[in-house]
Specification:
single chain; alpha+beta; Chloramphenicol Acetyltransferase; 2 domains; 10 helices; 17 strands; about 35% helix; about 20% strand
Length: about 450
């Protein structure tokens, strides 16, 4: 039984008003010779029992007197669900529908969806043209960030099966009521110190921020960002998903996959939205892991440099932006560190109350970026499911009240998948994907 970190608790609480489950997709060759889906289900359940992060669920503390706790959980028969879809497009449509059925981490923080065998899936790393099986890990964002889910899936689909007992907690049930009230009592006991620490550290954090602003931009305005566009509004309930799978060798060799993808996205947005003086994207950037914290990332604005149509110049300028953002994230910015300490000291009852006050119905005038781009390198293509080799991996960053179009960039081996998540209320996804394909050809 372990107390959640402040960032993970905030992620968990926010999911009640803004769905944030991750849908981590791996596509495999269908096994040859064929095996039954029941056999595949048994294999996945057995492997899941050996993955510590998949043997957790959330214990809520009465009255928010303390942050939630992680407690042990078993792997039940409902953990893996099979959908007998026949085509890749059907699979994408079904994954989009799953957004309406978020997991309840207090019951189970994850589930696996199996699709297929199906036709029409991109080949990715595979040389075959046959049918495929798609495995989708749906998991609460409180459990892991992008790097964490990649590690979980390596355990699920790796060559060496994980061993039961490797991390995680033993399932519990009988003593949970007493544990819940015990945690509440501890929360009450630490409340006076938490309040005093919150005030002191909050004032220090504000002072650090003011100092940093004066040093960097003495005349900095109070509002930052770029004007919101037609993409920056509530997407409604529907989801439309598409994936473009490329060979890494088809992208420019002198730059990272992230930079190449951002450059292509910038030209696609030019075609979709038209010219503007300045346009930015919101890029997820990994941060150095903190002890006990499962979500170690932040979102930063990356200028897409609309001022030039020269592909090479734009790509180089975007590369400089990405490098600067990554360097800053790796350096543990003093302002961010100070804010983290203040957040960690804030009593749970106040932190949760503040999150509940968030107004998801009011659109912003400015945004950090007109779209979100999330990138994860998921390692070598040495994964398999029931003997079928991995083809590619992808994912679909969640939409939000101010982000109606998001992109995922995921690599495994030589395969790079660029995903698009949107809604029929925001944009015609197939028309936009054609713009993105033209932009990828251009870069």
């Amino acid at each position: 039984m372990r107390r959640m970190s402040a960032p993970d608790a905030a992620m968990y609480w926010r999911s009640a008003i803004m769905p944030s489950d991750q849908f981590v997709v791996y596509c495999f060759d269908a096994p040859d010779p064929a095996v039954s889906m029941a056999e595949v289900v048994r294999e996945l359940r057995e492997r899941a029992r050996g993955v510590g992060d998949l043997r957790l669920r959330v214990l809520n503390v009465p009255g928010d007197l303390d942050r939630p706790y992680w407690v042990g959980s078993g792997v039940g028969p409902e953990a893996v669900v099979v959908y007998p879809v026949l085509t890749w497009r059907e699979c994408l449509d079904r994954i989009g529908e799953l957004n309406d059925d978020q997991v309840d981490p207090s019951e189970s923080a994850w589930r696996i969806h199996l699709f297929g065998p199906l036709t029409g899936a991109p080949r990715g790393c595979s040389a075959g043209e046959g049918r495929a099986i798609v495995a989708v890990l749906q998991i609460s964002h409180a459990v892991a960030d992008g790097r964490g889910t990649a590690a979980i899936c390596r355990a699920l689909f790796g060559v060496v099966p994980p061993q039961y007992g490797a991390g995680g907690d033993e399932p519990v049930s009988g003593w949970l009521p007493s544990a819940r009230w015990g945690a509440a009592a501890l929360g009450v006991a630490r409340l006076p110190v938490s309040v005093a620490s919150m005030v002191w550290l909050g004032l220090r954090s504000f002072a650090e921020y003011r100092t940093a602003v004066r040093r960097a931009h003495p005349e900095a305005p109070g509002v930052v960002g770029v004007p919101a566009t037609e993409l920056n509004r509530s997407a409604g309930p529907g989801r439309t998903l598409r994936v473009i799978v490329l060979d890494r060798r088809s992208l420019p060799p002198g730059h990272s996959v992230t930079v190449a993808a951002l450059t292509a996205i910038s030209f696609a947005l030019d075609e979709l939205l038209g010219p503007v003086p300045r346009r930015t994207a919101e890029l997820t950037v990994g941060r150095p892991p903190r002890p006990g914290v499962r979500n170690n990332f932040g979102n930063v604005a990356v200028d897409l440099h609309q001022e030039t149509d020269d592909v090479g110049v734009r790509m180089s300028r975007i590369a400089e932006e990405v490098t600067a953002a990554q360097r800053k994230a790796a350096a543990r910015d003093p302002v961010a560190e100070s804010a983290y300490r203040a957040e960690s000291a804030t009593p749970a009852i106040l932190a949760h109350w503040a999150i509940r006050q968030f107004d998801i119905g009011t659109g912003p005038d400015t945004v950090t970026g007109v779209t979100v781009v999330s990138t994860v390198n998921r390692g070598p293509a040495d994964l398999a499911l029931a003997g079928g080799r991995v083809r590619f991996t992808t994912g679909f960053p969640a939409l939000s009240p101010c982000q109606g179009l998001t992109h995922g960039v995921h690599g495994i081996g030589s395969a790079v998948a660029i995903s698009v998540t949107t809604s029929p209320e925001i944009v015609d996804v197939d028309a936009y994907v054609e713009m993105l394909r033209r932009a990828l050809d251009r870069v």
